[in-house]
């Protein structure tokens, strides 16, 4: 059985760009991104492509693109928290409704990937795990993240020196550039 891929395919790159940039600035689902990238089994592929165990290079590329977005728009975790703190303090001082400002700042954080909507159905509690089970769970989490880190290093080593930037989506005259 061959090892994991060493480079991204054009479809994988297009999928990652669609996940990060959306279509005309509007976010889209994994299924829609897979369909627009040209995958025939869009629901299955969209999920698989974002699984770091199956496609660590794609996950690393998505992470790199999100890092570029954060850098481009000057959103950092610390700055985000500072801005939320300022909004809170201003609201306390003036007794004004700053819900719109807070919502805007939260939206900035979402765009930057600091908020992840997920639902987890748990059966049991972490307190119910014995020490061996807890260490096993921690090992799995570490291995999952390790694959993405290794894939990021591989992506960086595959980049050509003159093209440090990752490809950006192109806009055309009113047409969707991703189709």
Largest sheet geometry: none
- On the 0-100 scale, what is the average pLDDT? 77
What's the Cα radius of gyration? Answer: 20 Å
Q: Report low-confidence residues grouped into runs of 5 or more.
A: 170-179
| Helix and strand run | HHHHHHH
The coarse overall form would be globular
Fold topology:
Elements: H1 10-21, H2 30-37, H3 42-49, H4 56-72, H5 77-94, H6 99-111, H7 131-158
Protein architecture, described:
Helix 4 packs across helix 7. The C terminus is likely disordered. This protein has 179 residues and is mainly α. It has 2 domains: 108 residues, no CATH class; 37 residues, no CATH class. The two termini are 34 Å apart. It contains 7 helices and no strands.
Summary tags:
single chain; 179 residues; disordered C terminus; 0% strand; 2 domains; 58% helix; mainly alpha
């Amino acid at each position: 059985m061959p090892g994991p891929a060493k480079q991204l395919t054009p479809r994988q790159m297009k999928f990652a760009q669609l996940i990060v940039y959306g279509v005309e600035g509007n976010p889209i689902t994994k299924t829609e991104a897979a369909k627009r990238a040209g995958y025939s089994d869009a629901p299955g592929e969209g999920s698989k492509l974002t699984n770091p165990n199956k496609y660590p290079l794609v996950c690393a590329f998505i992470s790199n693109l999100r890092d570029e977005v954060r850098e481009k728009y000057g959103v950092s975790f610390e700055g985000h928290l500072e801005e939320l703190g300022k909004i809170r303090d201003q609201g306390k001082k003036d007794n004004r409704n700053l819900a719109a400002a807070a919502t805007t700042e939260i939206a900035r954080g979402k765009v930057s990937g600091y908020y992840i909507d997920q639902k987890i159905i748990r059966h049991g509690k972490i307190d119910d795990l014995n020490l061996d089970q807890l260490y096993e769970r921690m090992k799995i989490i570490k291995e999952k993240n390790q694959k993405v880190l290794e894939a990021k290093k591989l992506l960086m080593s595959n980049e050509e020196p003159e093209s440090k930037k990752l490809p950006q989506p192109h806009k055309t005259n009113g047409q969707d550039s991703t189709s």
